[in-house]
Each structure stands twice: as structure tokens, then as C-alpha cells.
């Protein structure tokens, strides 16, 4: 039974995957990606917090500014490259199959997919910096889940379908990351930039819109699939879109909706307190006047 399962597994990896990426870094098996993701989760939830327990927060302002600038530039390169070879020129937005040839455009797409996969590892430094600065409130469940499963998720796409319909997610995601890392870079510069960062709330909305658009783009293939794109990958994209839309929606509700209600309640309480204080003062003054008269 185990031998048969292993044989089927090897058959899948060796004969059903894209041979063009067989010898590329981390592409022979999902094991390296899984190990790196597990090490990431262990590091940010256990190892680094323990390391920082008796230490003062590190001041990493310049490092973080440079890191976010490089991430924004990396995302910009991926967005432009993928747009030029696919979604802004040659791809069909309705349904797009994968070009498994060794043509120049096809190989550029494969390389772009791999670099997008690699970018999911560079994003781990977001969390490392949070922990080293003791900003534990930012190491949320959403944050860790999002970063922890994305490399593993993207690996399957690069291994089996490096191109075609599912790359729309990467195309849209790199654009969102240009905006996101630009915001992070400006925020890291210092308090003097806060006046220009009023749009933080809309960055979260942009991320939710991203997952909604990706969901719709993939969902249409369940009804009409003229390019015969593998339905298994359609379901994979739909599942991720729903998961992250749910998680980001919860984050938006907790961060903006509930906080706004809480602030409004505090304002109402303070307003009533001031009003009651004024009434008390007026009543006390009237009593003093009557007593004097």
C-alpha cells in the first residue's frame, strides 16, 4: 500500500509535472518549500520571540525602508514582465491555456512564475522585522497564515502549470504589492510621513478587491472552459480566494469597523461627561447665586 502510494507520488512529480522546471531550485519536490514554511512559522511564533524576551527592540528603520523599497521594485519588475508577456498583450482574459513549449515568451513566463514563487520567501522578512522590533501585535494569525502557506501554494502552480489562466492571480497580486510596499516604505521613514498615509484603510480594501476579482476570474471556468484549463487548479484558486477574502474581511472588520464604533462610543461617553459636567456647574452656580441673594 505504501509502496503503491509512493509510486503514484513519484509518477505525479516526475511524469505529470512540467519538465522545464524539473532541475530548478526547490522544484524537484515540495519538501524544501514545506520545511522552509514550517521553519518560518516556528521562528516567528517561538524562536525569535524567545530570543527577544530579555532584549530591547531593535531599531531597524533604515533597514526596513531599504527592504520595502527593494520589495516594491521587485514587485514592479514582476508586474511589468508578466504584463508584457501575458495579460497586457498575448493572453485571453476569458480563458487561457498554458504554453508548454520552449519558445521565448513561454520560457519568460515560466521564469516569471518561478521568481514570483521566490518572492514569497523574501516576504518572510516582514514578520522577522516585526518580531525584532517587538511589534507582536502585527504578527497576527492572518499575517502568519498568509505568508506561511503562499510559497507552498504557488509551488504547485510553478511545478505543474507555470502559465495560463491561474497566473492572473500573480499578475494582480504583484500590482497590489507595489502599492503595499510603497506604503510600508513611507510609513517606515518616520512620523513626518503620517499625514500622507491616510489611505491605509483603502489598502486593505484593495487587497480584498483583489481576491474577489481573482475569484470571479477563476469561477467563470466552471461554466465555460474553452481552453480546457485544469479544473483542479480552478478549485485551488477559488479556495485560496475565499480563504483570504474571509481573513482580510475579518481583519478589516476588527481594525476599522469595530475600532470606529469603539472610538464613537468613547466620544459619546466623553461628550455626555462634558455635558453633565456643564449641567452640574450651572446648577451649582445657580445655587450659589440663590444663596448669595
The low-pLDDT segments are: 286-293
- The amount of beta strand, in percent, is under 5%
**Percent of residues in helical segments?**
over 70%
Instruction: State the domain count.
Output: 1
Shape designation: globular
Helix and strand succession?
A: HHHHHHHHH
- Mean of residue pLDDT? 89
User: So how many helices?
Assistant: 9
Rg from alpha-carbon coordinates: 26 Å
Largest sheet: none
Distance between the termini: 103 Å
| Number of distinct beta strands | 0
Estimated structural class: mainly alpha
GO cellular component, one term: endoplasmic reticulum membrane
GO molecular function: fatty acid elongase activity
Catalytic activity: a very-long-chain acyl-CoA + malonyl-CoA + H(+) = a very-long-chain 3-oxoacyl-CoA + CO2 + CoA
Keywords: Fatty acid biosynthesis, Fatty acid metabolism, Lipid biosynthesis, Lipid metabolism, Membrane, Transferase, Transmembrane, Transmembrane helix
Protein model, in words:
The chain has one domain (17-252). Helix content is 73%, strand content 0%. It is built from nine helices and no strands. It has helices at 2-15, 31-51, 61-87, 104-122, 124-132, 141-160, 167-189, 200-219, 231-292.
Write a concise keyword list for the protein shown above.
disordered C terminus; globular; 9 helices; 293 residues; mainly alpha
Quick structural overview:
The protein has 293 residues and is an all-alpha fold.
Give the secondary structure arrangement, pairings included.
Elements: H1 2-15, H2 31-51, H3 61-87, H4 104-122, H5 124-132, H6 141-160, H7 167-189, H8 200-219, H9 231-292
Helix pairs in contact: 2-5, 2-6, 3-4, 3-7, 4-6, 7-8, 8-9
Amino acid at each position: 500500500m505504501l509502496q503503491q502510494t509512493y509510486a503514484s507520488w513519484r509518477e505525479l512529480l516526475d511524469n505529470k509535472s512540467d519538465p522545464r522546471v524539473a532541475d530548478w531550485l526547490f522544484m524537484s519536490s515540495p519538501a524544501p518549500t514545506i520545511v522552509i514554511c514550517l521553519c518560518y512559522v516556528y521562528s516567528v511564533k517561538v524562536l525569535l520571540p524567545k530570543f527577544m524576551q530579555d532584549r530591547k527592540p531593535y531599531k531597524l528603520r533604515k533597514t526596513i525602508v531599504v527592504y520595502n523599497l527593494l520589495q516594491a521594485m521587485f514587485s514592479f519588475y514582476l508586474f511589468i514582465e508578466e504584463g508584457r508577456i501575458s495579460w497586457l498583450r498575448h493572453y485571453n482574459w476569458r480563458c487561457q491555456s498554458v504554453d508548454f513549449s520552449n519558445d521565448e515568451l513561454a520560457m519568460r513566463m515560466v521564469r516569471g512564475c518561478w521568481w514570483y514563487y521566490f518572492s514569497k520567501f523574501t516576504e518572510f522578512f516582514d514578520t522577522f522585522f516585526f518580531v525584532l522590533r517587538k511589534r507582536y501585535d502585527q504578527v497576527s494569525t492572518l499575517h502568519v497564515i498568509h505568508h506561511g502557506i503562499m510559497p507552498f501554494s504557488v509551488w504547485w502552480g510553478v511545478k505543474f502549470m507555470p502559465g495560463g489562466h491561474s497566473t492572473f492571480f500573480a499578475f494582480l497580486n504583484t500590482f497590489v504589492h507595489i502599492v503595499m510596499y510603497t506604503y510600508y516604505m513611507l510609513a517606515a521613514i518616520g512620523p513626518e510621513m503620517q499625514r500622507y498615509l491616510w489611505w491605509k484603510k483603502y489598502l486593505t480594501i484593495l487587497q480584498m478587491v483583489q481576491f474577489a476579482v481573482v475569484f470571479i476570474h477563476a469561477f467563470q471556468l466552471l461554466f465555460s472552459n474553452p481552453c480546457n484549463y485544469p479544473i483542479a487548479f480552478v478549485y485551488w484558486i477559488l479556495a485560496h480566494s475565499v480563504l483570504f477574502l474571509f481573513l482580510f474581511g475579518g481583519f478589516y472588520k476588527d481594525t476599522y469597523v469595530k475600532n470606529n464604533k469603539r472610538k464613537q462610543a468613547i466620544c459619546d461617553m466623553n461628550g455626555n461627561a462634558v455635558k453633565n459636567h456643564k449641567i452640574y456647574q450651572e446648577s451649582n452656580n445657580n445655587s450659589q447665586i440663590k444663596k448669595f441673594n
